[in-house]
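User: I'm new to structure prediction. If I give you an amino acid sequence, what do you actually give back? Let's try with this one:
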Amino acid sequence: MPSLKEIKGRIASVNSTRKITSAMKMVASSKLHHAQVAIQNMLPYETMLEHILKSFLAAEAEAHTIFDKVRPVRRCALVVFTSNSSLCGGFNGNTIKMMTHVVDDYAREIGRENVEIYPIGRKVYEKAQKMGLNVQGEFSALADKPNAHDCIKIAMELGKKFYDGEIDKVELIYHHFKSAGSQILTRKTFLPIDLESELNADHERDLTSIIATKESQEYLKKRGERQQEKEKESVKPLNDNFLVEPDMDTVLSQLLPKYAHLLLYTALLDSNASEHAARMVAMQTATDNADELLRQLNLQYNKGRQQAITNELLDIVGGSVNN
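Assistant: Good question. You get back a string of structure tokens that encode the predicted 3D arrangement of the chain. For your 323 residues, that looks like this:
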């Protein structure tokens, strides 16, 4: 059995660790709130652009641009989103694991050297370099400070390569942010753009709460379902009488690149919010574990102290009896 001094040292050590994890949880919670606000600021643009594209599809526009043309894959690119730092649970590990599986799948079909990697985040950049993959640049700054300008640059570079025939397919690997307690690892085709699947994709997000407990998530889910039912009852048709000039094909050839830029920026914001949510949950779990460990150590310390007092009393009583 460890001595009281050793137990007291462990209690002090666990207390110090708990302070760190608790502080990191609060910092991640604050950053998550800012990430949710960034997604909220992007949503009006996304909603209107999707509405316009859906309206054109409903009008049965048979427009075929270079960006939505499917062709045989001889060379592909993967845009993979991770974080720059650790302590966020399985966030980085799961993303890198999926990237490895996708690279292996393509390696059997087109060869490992024909797979290009665009790493967003230091963790995936270091892993791709270690694996000897064909890394196209280093974009770690975007993982900490997402901005649309740099996303458009990457999207334009990918679009140019796709247009020139240098690559035949581009995929995104990232975490889709649904709520503070749920982030879904997603593999999505970026180019060629499949409007039907993209416009029918799951865009549900809870941007109002940073609570990650299971009970709270169930409550929020039920409340969200009730709100959706009310919205369906009170929904009003929008005016879709667009005047398309000069023609539908020309307009779509301008809209599709903008939609591609939006897809990349949305994936970045989702990944950023998912990172902070995963770190917040991981630090909350670590803090709870520290609390439980402190409870056990305090109990062990009190038992040891009580045993020492009992032994001293027995020594005193035994000495008096002998006298």
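You can read the tokens as a compact description of the fold. Here is one thing that stands out. The helical segments are 4-58, 91-110, 122-131, 140-144, 148-164, 195-199, 214-233, 248-322.
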